[in-house]
Each structure stands twice: as structure tokens, then as C-alpha cells.
Amino acid sequence: MTAIARPKNLWLGRWGFVLAATGSSVGLGNIWKFPYMTGEYGGGAFVMVYLVCIVAIGVPVMMTEIALGRRGRGSPIDAIRRVARESGRSGLWSGLGWMAMLCGFMILSFYVVVAGWAVSYLWKSLSGGLTADSVEGMAAIFGANNANPWNLGFWSTLVTVATMAIVGLGVQAGIERSVRWMMPGLVVMLVVMIVYAIFSGSFGAGVQFLFAFDPGKLTGQAILAAMGHAFFTLSLASGAILTYGAYLPAGQSIGRTTLMVAICDTLVALMAGLAIFPVIFANGMDPASGPGLIFMSLPLAFQQMPLGGVIETIFFLMLTVAALTSAISMIEATVAWLNESHGLSRARAAWGVGILLWIVSTLAMLSFNVGADWKLAGRHFFDWLDFLTSRFLMPLGGLGTALLAGFVLRRESLEVELGLPSAIHALWRFTIRYVCPVAIVMVFLDALGALNADFDWRWLAMVLALALLAEVVLARLTRRA
Ligand code: PHE
């Protein structure tokens, strides 16, 4: 069976997809969010659940997205419509693509603000503006950086312009060419950081904190947070991976590339933890200090250490590069859609979307200064963007993707695209049909406050075991028929 549409864009290099998709998944989620969440949710137990979520939910959903993208060869809206129609199903499933595109746009609208922090800290680090003698002093620097809308707006605008410039250049000349040097650079910087942490931090304490498994700390909240983060860190349900998958050449294995991306993403998160916590512990600081962890505690810690200034600069450069390779992936779906379905040139599409993005992200940026009082139900616009995407749009998109692939499309459609050995395919199918939907529905129940903290997870394991049994029996029966 051949692909149902002719690809317009394809990654040129053998590593094009892996570099771009790894660039997408490795971002602020790994270096900023993962360490502070691990700190907040108590370390090893959280890390363990996060790893299980990556393997049991993240990997199968990512494979599905890449397969949908490659089979439909287009932006999420077009690709999903084509794939659904090919199976004789309603084109309205493309609504999933709309949702993904909206989700990517919304994430980017607050992401550029955090990325703006990273770039401004890189600048401060270079120009000597990051010195204080206490965490309070560092907090004051962070506060001052946010308080002036012209300052903060300058940095987030810079990130917006850089993102749109790269995406506007196109898939090969913009995205692929930039990740080809940014990703190796990222790895080199991360290795420098780890080696430094080994020699000068409390490396043992960091390892202990990240990997000591204490089931007593395993609350329902931590489990659900870990699952939401698995979606975010792998760039799922936001159009990024699906669109990059649309450019994957026919011969490349989806299973293998997915594993590579997921392993790299996980390694970077763990390495970031290993680079950050030893430094925190060596200076007797609190790992549970929240979103400010890398912007307050960390610079203070660096300041007290030999060669700290250089390492600090490397750290914020690394953060900037990681954020940029993720940012471009969040908006590629929209630009590809305008380009393919509406005949706009890449550059026009990118700058047009860029203006809209600039307006929305500026509103998000204002949450930290002028608009500090503009709250709806206790949340700033910035917080709403984060909350709606990670608590609502991403899980819902993941659920839709799993249902579409597991129950709606003709079985052969993605089977051909995935090309997995039959046992592995059965495992993928079981996960997509049962594990993912059940797990995701639980996130919603939790968001609605329907799950209490001492929810008994054993009955869930039992239900899933029964479903697996039913699946195996059914597979046997249908094979006979
Ligand atoms: N995965 C990115 C990170 O961890 C964030 C992201 C989300 C990127 C959605 C693309 C789409 O920072």
C-alpha cells in the first residue's frame, strides 16, 4: 500500500527527523520544569512514575502521531482528515488537528516568555548582572527583570522573532539546518555541566535525591502531574510531532526513531537533574523551591563555586538553545497548514502568525507586571495558557488520538505505516486502546476533583489486566475466523 498523498517536504538528512524531534522534545520542560517538579514532588518516587508514563503512554502516543503524520502527509488538520477519510470515516476527525494546532500556539504564547527569561539571564550572566548574596537578593533580580514590561517584552519579542525567522525559512533551510548545529551544541554543553557537577557538587546527594525510590511519597497528585508532564516533555498532542512526522521519509522506522527521541529526552531530563541538584545540595539549598529553582537558587549556587561564572553562562546558553528548538516545533503545524492549504508562502505564513503570536504572548508577558491584577478565577493569563494546555488540551488531544488510532481507523492503515513486528504491534495496540484512554480519563477526573488522594490504584491494574486478556482472546478468535 502506498502513502495516500505525495510528500511536499521531507527531511534531507538521515538524522533530520531525530534531530528535529529531539530538539522539539528537549526544552524548558526538561531543564526548567522537570527539576523543579521533581523537587516539589519529592524526588525519586516522582521520577519513577514519570519514567513509567513515558514508556507506557508517551512512547505509544508518539508512535501514533508520527504514523498519522506520515500517512496523511500534511499539517495535523489535513493529515488527520485524509487518514480518517481513507478509512471511510468522517473528515470531522480533523477537529483533533485544529485542537492540536491551537494547543501548540497557546503553549508557545507563554513559552516565549519563559524562554525570554532564559535569554535575559544569559545576557545578565555575560554582563555581570547576576550577583547577589542571598536567595532573596536573587529573587529581587528575578522580580526586577519581570517588573518592567519593556524589558521583559524585549526579551520575549526577541525569542518570537528568532522562532518565526527560522520557521519562515522552511523545513530544510530553516528547521533542519538550525537543529543540525544546535542539537550537538546542546549535548556538549550538557556534558560540560555534568562533568562540572561530578567534580564540584554533592553528586552523591543529587543521585540519591533523583533515584531513591520512596513509595511513601507517591501521592495521586504526583502520579497525575508526572503523566501530564510526560505529554508536555515529549511535545505530544500539540501538532509538533505529527507535523514533523509528515516529513519523515518512507523507509525510516517509526518505532526505532520514537525510541531514540524518547530516550534522548529522558536522558536530558535526568542529566539536567544530575547537573542541577548536586550544585543545589553542595550549597545547602532547598530542592523544592518551585519554578524559580533555576533562576534564583542555581545562579546563587554558581556564584559561590570555582569557575561558576563560566558554567552559569553555559547553562543559560544551553537553556536558550533548548527553548528555541522546541519553540520552532510548536508553530510549524500552523505555518505548514497556511502554506499547504491556503497557498501562503512560508515566510508570509510565519510572519503573519508571528504577529498574532506576538500580541498573545505580550498579553501573557504582562501578567508579570502591568497586568498583575488581571486575574480570572485566581489565575493570570499566563497561568491560564499553561493550565488549559497541560491540564485540558494535551490530555484531550492524546485521548482523541488514541481513540482514533485504536477504534476508528481501519486496522491496516496504521499497521502498514508503523511496520512493527506482530508482538510489538499487539502491545502498541493494547496500550493505545486501553492503557492510554484509561490513564488520560483519570487526569480529567482528577482535574474535576473527582479523585481523592488515597485513590486505590490496584483496581485499575486489575481492569487493565482484564482488558489485555480480552484483547489477546479476541485476537485469537478473529485470526481463526
Ligand atoms: N517538549 C517541550 C519541552 O519539554 C515543550 C513542547 C510542548 C514542545 C509542545 C512542542 C510542543 O520543553
Automatic annotation (TrEMBL):
It is found in: Membrane. Keywords: Membrane, Symport, Transmembrane, Transmembrane helix, Transport. It holds the Pfam family SNF. The chain crosses the membrane at residues 12-32, 44-69, 90-123, 152-175, 187-211, 223-247, 259-281, 314-338, 350-372, 392-409, 430-451, 457-477. InterPro entries: Na/ntran_symport, SNS_sf, YocR/YhdH-like. One of its GO terms (cellular component) is membrane. GO terms for molecular function: symporter activity. It is a multi-pass membrane protein. Signal peptide: none annotated. Belongs to the sodium:neurotransmitter symporter (SNF) (TC 2.A.22) family. This is Transporter.
